[in-house]
């Protein structure tokens, strides 16, 4: 395994130029693309903004929700601090909230180049790997979000670097550092537990036979302090809330699939892959699958670091299936940069023309997808519409999709639809319609302010609710087919 990253030459210049052009496009359209409206992005951003002022890292729920006055503890303090500081310095704006994510994806791009060089790829092939990662759909999705998912990417790549460095030089400090990073990743998201398990398994599987136990124990020793601090902060600060929250999660979303048997593990994998590869319009992301498989097979057939990267990607996916019943596809993107190294080497590392043409087709697919997002980018809420909505519901209680928090950050009557969606956690004895109505009564919600994100998220969960319990009183069209609708709520009792 060759560790030295040699000097750059002319072979990397075209890739750098293309990367800079894409980065400028990212920066210019950070508030509008990709075409993936996230219902909870605003709730994470508002939580981060409040964390920057109060030091409390929780996704805001409603005051007095089912008898509780505290927040939902679902947010790591590291992304909360980064996004909150950005919002405090740059103002409340979607582009500002997403800036830390773009920074992380930008930072990991040269790391992908360095990984490829450590795999003895040529400079042009390493440049192709770095650009393939940056232009890929996973990178686009992670670079344009205020969710904590990009921070799992950051921890995964840093941990992988320390881990493979330790395998090569055998120094105990490298494994302690790897464990420290893995344990600290819990402060980004609880999916960090899958990263820690991945590293433990790989330490036992890839270390020299005489050092397997030692390396695994060093990983555990490094991970324990930050993991215990994370547990103490979250459990110790709000023990009743922690108990209720995880009791609700256990009943509603089920425990880790590992505890439920093989079928639950397979279901976890199927849901995660189905959401990403099959859930996209026209199932177009399936085009990525053969390249991912080819890259992993290529790596497994190689020696040294390339094989290690393949195992890292495979084992991380398996650990996600074992530990997480939450099927968001963004979690598995954390190791896609490593897969891009293998895909680029498989496509561009040889002299045959056919693999190179296939690799170019993957670049073309990713560029076309980026163009689609740019063409379909939504129009930000105009000031005239925002003012009209405030004139109608300002000073009163209304329910809205959390992405509208960026437009109404100071409205005390703003209530989160994510909080309403999580009602089954707090009222598992009620079905969803009954729990939702109880939430509306308790919070004294008078209006629903509905945009396309709200409509696509909550309406399928509560079919017919608006017809039975709401009256459309205002509609404000804007942009290309976009609109804000205001409904008055009628809830008996």
Can you describe this structure?
With 493 residues, the chain is mostly helical. It has 2 domains: 366 residues, no CATH class; 107 residues, no CATH class. It is built from 22 helices and 5 strands. Strands 2-1-3-5-4 form a 5-stranded mixed beta sheet. The longest helix has 26 residues. The radius of gyration is 23 Å and the shape is globular. The N terminus is likely disordered.
Beta-sheet strand percentage?
5-15%
Rounded to the nearest angstrom, the radius of gyration is: 23 Å
Q: Give the helix tally.
A: 22
Helix content: 55-70%
Q: Report low-confidence residues grouped into runs of 5 or more.
A: 1-7
Helical/strand content category: mainly alpha
| Large-scale geometry | globular
Count of domains: 2
Mean pLDDT: 85
| Measured distance between first and last alpha carbons | 70 Å
* SSE series: HHHHHHHHHHHHHHHHHEEHHHEHHEE
Number of strands: 5
For the sheet with most strands, the description reads: 5 strands, mixed
Taking strands numbered 1, 2, ... along the chain, how are they ordered across the largest sheet? 2-1-3-5-4
Descriptors:
5-stranded mixed β-sheet, disordered N terminus, 22 helices, 493 residues
Summarize the structure.
This protein has 493 residues and is mainly alpha-helical. Helices cover 62% and strands 5% of the residues. It is globular, with a radius of gyration of 23 Å.
